[in-house]
Automatic annotation (TrEMBL):
Membrane topology: Multi-pass membrane protein
Gene Ontology molecular function, alphabetical: transmembrane transporter activity
Signal peptide range: none
Entry protein name: Major facilitator superfamily (MFS) profile domain-containing protein
One GO-annotated biological process of the protein: chemical synaptic transmission
Cellular component, GO, one term: neuron projection
Region annotation (Disordered) ranges: 1-53
TM spans (from-to): 113-140, 152-169, 181-199, 205-227, 239-262, 282-301, 391-412, 542-564, 571-592, 598-620, 632-653, 659-677
Start and end residues of each Major facilitator superfamily (MFS) profile domain: 115-683
Pfam families found in the cross-reference section: LD_SV2, MFS_1, Sugar_tr
Keywords: Cytoplasmic vesicle, Glycoprotein, Membrane, Neurotransmitter transport, Phosphoprotein, Synapse, Transmembrane, Transmembrane helix, Transport
SUPFAM superfamilies: MFS general substrate transporter, Pentapeptide repeat-like
Biased composition (Gly residues): 12-32
């Protein structure tokens, strides 16, 4: 029997900038071998034995319903006719149509669903990364003795890393390959997330989380670009929207694992006083599992054939497309269907030739330097091309939409839980007990003190042993001949007090807790070193519950947007969702309770996710294959910049006023929604 690949040889024609893959008998585009591909008599598939063609009756034939193959043929004919009518059609336009026809023949099946899971886990890792620091911060600040400024920097460093990562990996993915760059990005994320869980000092922890963020920052721009290039036009919007659900799953996963692990402070070990590994560090390790799983899955996935064709790697692209075709049709019980593509036109770019020529000279270090410098130039050139005449307006509109949506979404994402905590604190402080001019002499305090203010009191020869003090304040009071031992305190201070002949043994009442106090013959012995975690306060379940409800509320919006993405269109979904989200934020003026704020948060998250889905789908479809990941990376980097600004600005108004955050988010969403309505609809557009 003849070798089925012997005719599939790449030829570079004289003067033709495109290579022709295989022999197509003079036909344009890529060729099919006709209605019935040639086979030897004995080469028929075993799957067809016992079946006559006449017996295979399409069930809709009697109802006058056209066969799906007839519909596809009609669509292809219409596209071919439109291409002929379009005078300015380029070779790249022809390649785009050819590639769409190939993906239709490959079908949507097992291969796409497998890739869906693998890339979904990478997207899930991105979602988890956004929650990790927020969940561990209450515990980490005690373990590392963090100041308010250090806590703020730790909260922002992840977004800063993701911003840099999106910019770098998006540009590299268009030059080095989607799969290759995603593997590198996830590897960096996994390695430095692992290292951060063992970092004992604030500086190392901050650095490792920054590099981890740079790694995971590449997941969003690469995942959407990668997956879209394995989807046919009528499946693209819906299945890219389903893919967005993994970001929600990441939030739920982080909330549940934090709730289940962090409160168990004893889940860990220590090596002396210098190395502590508490439960929040276990949580950091567990959060790396989605990225590790995706990384393993990617080892068995191929590169995007569209990327390979853009970079003149025809043989690889053909073999991958054949594998996609065979995998899907075997899973559907039709292994006899043969991949009939005989040749594909694809460019051989000057950029590739330049890299090849330069990398063939000099020492290994010189070649590496030349390749790196050339790569940087090509990436920067690609970024600059986003502002070229053809893409300038689309890039400007998309930048406004990404920025306004991220500014409001991430800003309110911080404002909602902080506002709920503030209302809780107000309620807590309203129940404070005030003791005025009390005199306590020779008394043994063996019970905890909480939420109390003691003014002008006198404590003579009293003992405070093995107790907790939480939110306790002593003002203008006298302590004489008292003894404090084994005290754990939270937000406890002594202000303008007189303390005479008193001993503090093994307590965390440091001298800075005594404000404008007079200390006379007072001794501090064996003070507790470092910072200590108050389990009851810091591991409040509210922080996990609010994040969990916000993530879960995304589910209805995800389902609805996925089902209607192809029916309504991307532009209308983005515009309407952003305007409705603006309405949700406006009604926050009427929210005065924790329950009301949580309800509006859930509604806001559920509606805004539809806008996010539409934004990500249309970003993929607006840009050609050679610039798709670059554009997505630049816009996603802008998104993270907006997140940094939004979280910083909105958090600063908690407890001050809610008018400014609400007006800022409402205005931003309305502006973004109106701009979105000016975008071109890409629902029936072939992926360029």
């Amino acid at each position: 029997m003849a070798d089925p690949y012997q005719n599939n040889v790449y030829h570079q024609g004289g003067g033709d900038p495109y290579g022709t893959y295989g022999e197509g008998g003079g036909q344009e585009g890529y060729g099919y071998q006709g209605e019935s591909y040639p086979q030897e008599e004995d080469a028929a598939s075993d799957a067809t034995e016992g079946h006559d063609d006449e017996d295979q009756m399409y069930e809709g034939e009697y109802q006058g319903i056209p066969h799906p193959d007839e519909v596809k043929a009609a669509q292809r004919a219409a596209r071919a006719k439109a291409r002929q009518a379009q005078a300015g059609a380029t070779e790249l336009d022809e390649l785009a149509e050819q590639y769409e026809d190939i993906m239709e023949d490959c079908g949507h099946g097992r291969f796409q669903w497998t890739l869906f899971i693998v890339l979904g886990l990478a997207l899930m890792a991105d979602g988890v990364e956004c929650f990790v620091v927020g969940f561990v911060l209450p515990s980490a600040e005690k373990d590392m003795c963090l100041s308010n400024g250090e806590k703020g920097m730790l909260g922002l460093i992840v977004f800063l890393g993701m911003m840099v990562g999106a910019f770098i990996w998006g540009g590299m993915a268009d030059k080095l390959g989607r799969r290759r760059c995603l593997i590198w990005a996830l590897t960096i994320n996994c390695v430095f997330a692992f290292l951060s869980s063992f970092a004992q000092g604030y500086g190392f922890f901050l650095f490792f989380r920054l590099i981890s963020g740079i790694g995971i920052g590449g997941s969003v721009p690469i995942v959407y670009s990668y997956f879209s290039e394995f989807l046919q036009m009528d499946k693209r919007g819906e299945h890219l929207s389903w893919l967005c659900m993994f970001w929600m799953v990441g939030g739920i996963y982080a909330s549940f694992t934090a709730w289940g692990i962090i409160p168990h402070y004893g889940w860990g070990f220590s090596m002396g006083t210098e190395f502590q590994f508490h439960s929040w560090r276990v949580f950091v390790l567990v959060c790396a599992l989605p990225a590790i799983t995706s990384l393993v899955g990617l080892m068995f996935m191929p590169e995007s054939p569209r990327f390979l064709l853009e970079n003149a790697k025809h043989d690889e692209a053909w073999m991958i497309l054949k594998n996609v075709h065979d995998t899907n049709w075997r899973a559907k019980g039709q292994p006899e269907k043969v991949f009939q593509v005989t040749h594909i036109k694809a460019p051989k770019t000057q950029e590739d030739e330049f890299i090849e020529i330069q990398s063939a000279t000099g020492t290994a270090i010189q070649r590496w330097a030349v390749r790196t410098l050339t790569l940087c130039k090509l990436v920067l050139k690609n970024i600059a091309s986003l502002l070229g005449p053809e893409l300038r307006l689309s890039t400007l509109f998309m930048a406004i939409i990404w920025f306004t949506m991220a500014f409001s979404y991430y800003g309110l994402g911080v404002w909602f839980p902080d506002m709920i905590k503030y209302l809780q604190q107000e309620e807590y402080e309203s129940k404070v007990k005030v003791f005025h001019r009390e005199r306590v002499e020779r008394f043994h305090f063996n019970f905890s003190l909480e939420n109390q203010i003691h003014r002008e009191g006198e404590y003579i020869n009293d003992k405070f042993i093995n107790i907790q003090m939480k939110s306790v304040k002593f003002e203008d009071s006298l302590f004489e001949d008292c003894y404090f031992e084994d005290i754990k305190s939270t937000e406890t201070i002594f202000e303008n007090c007189t303390i005479r002949s008193t001993v503090f043994y093994n307590t965390d009442l440091y001298e800075e807790r005594f404000i404008d106090c007079r200390l006379e013959n007072t001794t501090f012995l064996h003070n507790k070193k470092g910072c200590h975690l108050d389990i009851d306060e810091e591991n409040d379940v509210l922080i996990y519950l609010v994040s969990f409800l916000g993530s879960l509320a995304v589910l209805p919006g995800n389902i609805i947007s996925a089902l209607f993405m192809e029916k309504i269109g991307r532009v209308k979904i983005i515009g309407l969702s952003m305007l409705i989200s603006a309405g949700c934020t406006f009604f926050l003026f009427l929210s005065f309770s924790q329950a009301a704020i949580i309800a509006w948060q859930c509604l806001f998250c559920g509606v805004s996710v539809a806008a996010w889905n539409g934004i990500e789908v249309i970003t993929v479809e607006l840009y050609p294959a050679s610039k798709r990941a670059t554009a997505f990376g630049v816009l996603n980097a802008l998104c993270k910049l907006a997140a940094i600004l939004g979280t910083s600005i909105f958090a600063s108004f908690v407890g001050v006023t809610k008018v400014v955050p609400i007006l800022l988010s409402c205005t931003a969403l309305v502006c973004g929604g109106l701009v979105a309505l000016k975008l071109p609809e890409t629902r029936e557009k072939i992926l360029q």
